[in-house]
Amino acid sequence: MNDKDNLLTLSWEHTISCEVTQLGRDYLIRLSGGIHTHHHHIGAVSTAYYVESVVISDVDECICSVNDTCLTGDEIPISMTTSDTGMKNYKNAGHTGSPEQIYTMTHVVPGHKEAILSEPMALEAAKRLRTTVTVIAGIHYEQLQKHEIDQVVHAAWHVFYKALSVAL
User: Fold this and answer.
1) Cα–Cα distances in Å, from 10 out to 13, 34, 35?
2) In what order do the strands lie in the sheet with 100-108?
3) Considering the chain, what is the average pLDDT of its residues?
4) Kind plus residue range of the DSSP H or E element containing 161
5) Is 72 buried (19+), middle (13-18) or exposed (0-12) by CB count in 10 A?
6) C or N terminus of the chain, fewer CB within 10 Å?
7) pLDDT of the residue at 100
8) What's the Cα-to-Cα distance from 131 to each of 9, 14, 37, 88, rounded to whole Å?
């Protein structure tokens, strides 16, 4: 019997788990899944965090490329994205000064695709919890078709929101 045969009797959500752990004021979220627990792994890690907007005047202090990979001092390149919805809401509310922005940094193990879950989930959790959040994701099923992958992604989000609502 293969993984797909087992899934005939199991829903995707029953094979995906999401644990939210508070670490001081921050949160760690572990999203894992697969028919067997030995399929659970680390495929991608994303951290979303708030930063007050800063204008960097010294070019040597931060070197940013077109794809938003930043290097400061002796750091290694890290993929970063920002959320500008907070900035838009900040300006619409008539605020002046330096608003906060949410940045995400993601590390992907070569050959893995879990960043499509870890990065937006870290961003969503940081927005809702108003703090730094790290999401570790690792989900594995054998030989899935495109529509099954879509179902797994949908189920993972459902499990994520359910776990996040408990933390709120």
Assistant:
1) 8, 11, 9
2) 16-23, 26-33, 133-139, 44-52, 100-108, 79-83
3) 78
4) helix 146-167
5) exposed
6) N
7) 76
8) 39, 29, 30, 19
pTM for the predicted model, two decimal places: 0.71
Q: Provide, rounded to the nearest whole percent, the portion of the chain with pLDDT above 70.
A: 65
Contact 133, 47 (CB under 8 A): yes
Between CA 162 and CA 83 the distance in angstroms is 23
Local structure of residue 143 (DSSP, 8 states): S
Query: Which tokens belong to 124?
Result: 């969503």
Task: Collect all residues with Cβ–Cβ distance below 8 Å to 122 and sequence separation of at least 6.
Answer: 29, 46, 47, 48, 104, 106, 133, 134, 135
Tell me 76's DSSP state: P
Contact between 35 and 15 under an 8 Å Cβ cutoff? The reply is yes
What are all long-range contacts of 12-18, with beta carbons under 8 Å and residues at least 24 apart? 12/151, 12/152, 12/154, 12/155, 12/156, 13/155, 13/158, 13/159, 15/141, 16/139, 16/152, 16/155, 16/156, 16/159, 17/159, 18/156, 18/159, 18/160, 18/162, 18/163, 18/164
